[in-house]
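Question: Now follow the chain.
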Amino acid sequence: MTDTIEGLAVHRPRSLRLFLDSLEVMADIGFHDFEIGTPQRLKISAEVWIAADRLPAEDEEAHAWNYDRLRTTVVELAAARRYNLQEALVQAIFERIASMSGVEALRIRSVKPDIYPDAEGVGVEVASFGGTWPE
């Protein structure tokens, strides 16, 4: 006889969320005279939702969605050129990651942690959906 667990709903995953949290990069960013040519510390986060049918079929590296692609994209774009606005950098990161295979939803966040001594940071966030989570 098989034991059954009562009271638990059986669900299948609908999505997979991968994330890169608060990657520190240096970027030449800002429009004030004192910011131009003086790289600033940024913390960039990326959240990527992948369709559940893209979950790895096997527990092997060949089936993984590679985190290195997220990190490399952020590092390369932060160093690629000078940005006046965090919005421009975040949009560049957003567009590059959105073009990657399997991405269904995406949120990118940039924080300048060294602007105000009484705040953890100032920043920008863009997402491919409204609200706190994709529908």
